[in-house]
Write a structure and sequence with these properties.
The complex is a heterodimer of chains A (157) and B (155). Chain A is of the alpha+beta class and 157 residues long. Chain A has a single domain (28-156), classed as Nuclear Transport Factor 2, Chain: A (Roll). Chain A has helices spanning 2-24, 29-45, 49-52, 74-85, and strands at 56-63, 71-72, 90-104, 107-119, 125-139, 142-152. Chain B has one domain: Nuclear Transport Factor 2, Chain: A, CATH 3.10.450.50. In chain B, β1 (56-64) and β2 (71-72) form a beta hairpin. Classes of the chains: A alpha+beta (157), B alpha+beta (155).
Chain lengths: 157, 155
């Protein structure tokens, strides 16, 4: 009986330690940068440009499929974001496939296939595919996006 | 005729773009990064594939616009060693639009124009852009990532 009680105590200790460990383990850099990217997409889906742009560094730059040359600066990129949000369509799903995170100290590079679903005002559904590289830098304890290269998926052609 | 006109227009745009960029001043550390980019483009153009691939870091993850998934150093090297010997670079220009440096880390955005010739003597003008992500390795900068490629359609 005593042995049974000891075993129970031991397993209860291991179980509670595991729970405690799970609670206090900070997220890895990989988890952090993926989480803030999803948070940005959530803000995009809500058409909340200010929230969406929170992760951008002031000197953020972007190559994207819509323009031949680079779009420089948080302010200019934010203006495009605001213009896009005025559209009648709605992003109803945004997911990251095959994410890879390379971490070099205060720098993290996130690459992934973007898989999203947009809905037009008349209810039509469109799959959106893209390929993305994001460069994050930790500034004053916060991960900021300093550069992104968004390219169309070749199967769109 | 339309192709010739398009190429002419692209050349004019690149010249105008180059003139604008030439006016831009780079810091010493930005110039140091750009020197490595010029070095590996030069190696690739000369067909020195060992030299060129030595600029890929072991942790490299890259993305060509034409590829559905990312490539590692080994898979990129495999592609380079298969495709590069099939074409000779006759001429190229690379034009930086931004060089971002923080300590031992940098990324460079640039446009390129390249004229190549295949074994049958057929010439191709390839215009595109790249983001190269680099890390300092001794006295040079090597690629830990890239994303880009051709933006004009095949001729």
């Amino acid at each position: 009986m005593k042995a049974l009680f000891m075993s129970f105590t031991f397993f209860a200790f291991v179980f509670s330690s595991t729970l405690l460990f799970a609670q206090i383990t900070p997220p890895s850099v990989e988890e952090e940068v993926i989480a803030i990217t999803y948070a940005q997409w959530k803000a995009n889906m809500e058409k909340n440009t200010a929230e969406s742009n929170k992760i951008l560094a002031d000197d953020y730059t972007e190559f994207n499929g819509g323009f031949a040359t680079r779009v420089d600066g948080k302010i200019l990129n934010s203006r495009f974001g605001e213009a896009f949000d005025k559209g009648s369509g709605q992003v109803i799903a945004a997911e990251m496939l095959n994410p890879k995170v390379q971490v070099y100290g205060d720098v993290a590079i996130l690459t992934y296939n973007y898989a999203g679903v947009n809905q037009s005002k008349d209810g039509a559904i469109e799959n959106i595919k893209a390929k993305s590289t994001r460069v994050y830098v930790k500034m004053n304890g916060t991960w900021k996006l300093v550069h992104a290269n968004f390219g169309f998926d070749p199967s769109n052609n | 005729m339309k192709t010739i006109f398009n190429l002419f227009a692209i050349c004019l745009l690149l010249i105008a773009f180059n003139s604008k960029i030439a006016a831009q001043e780079w810091s010493n550390e930005q110039e140091d990064v750009w020197k490595s980019v010029e070095a590996y483009w030069d190696l690739a153009a000369k067909g020195d594939l060992d030299g060129f691939t030595s600029y890929f870091h072991e942790s490299f993850v890259g993305w060509n616009y034409g590829a559905p998934v990312t490539s590692s150093k080994s898979s990129r090297e495999k592609l380079i060693r298969f495709f590069a010997p099939q074409n000779k670079t006759l001429f190229y220009t690379i034009t930086p639009v931004g060089i971002w440096v923080k300590g031992d880390f940098a990324f460079v955005d640039y446009h390129y124009m390249e004229v190549t010739e295949d074994k049958d003597g057929k010439r191709d003008t390839n215009v595109g852009r790249w983001t190269d992500i680099l890390i300092k390795d001794g006295d040079r900068w090597v690629m830990i990532g890239d994303h880009g490629g051709r933006t004009n359609s095949d001729n």
